[in-house]
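Hi P.,

Sorry for the delay on this. The queue was packed all week, but I finally got your sequence through. Input first:
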Amino acid sequence: MDLIDAVSRRRMVRRFDPDRDVPLDTVRRLVTLAQRAPSAGHTQGWDVLALTGAQDRARFWDVTREGPGEPDAWLRGVSAAPVLLVMLADPTAYLDRYAEPDKGWTDRSPERWPIPYWDTDTAMAAMIVLLGAVDAGLGALFFGVPAARHDALRTAYAVPPGRRVVGVIALGHEAERVRSPSLRRGRRPLDEVLHLGRFGASGAGTSEA
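Then the structure:
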């Protein structure tokens, strides 16, 4: 599959088949592929917590759920995924890396980072996993953990307290096609997205000779 095809076919899957596993070798290949993602200072300050066992996945849903009650359709569909990849960012790795001689920010101040590249790099790695899943014939969903449940998640899996939970990728085989209601919004037209030379100057429909 070429890149344009993978990008065009990528979609968020919300109903997974609980009876079709994902081999561990496939998980390893996807994470290896994600290691090709851009990385500020080649810091590579992210980790993947892979939950492939039934007990580990059940614990994840237990510690991240908000409130009592029966699981809704979203939770029933996504919790059937045979693999969960928790994407973790390590801010300290970047502060240490940019205090090295070739960078020289010896104060290690987070204020030098108006955009937290530890989260940016982790998200780029996650995007590569999502595209790699399409290429492998799998479905995937990137979703967040409620803010109030981050500490419980870290505690449950012995994640160091400094790691940030950027998001989670559910991975498996699609059981049922469900279209998100949000897609009714459509895609913004190119002339709203692309600005040439200054903000508001549309670049849609133009080309260089």
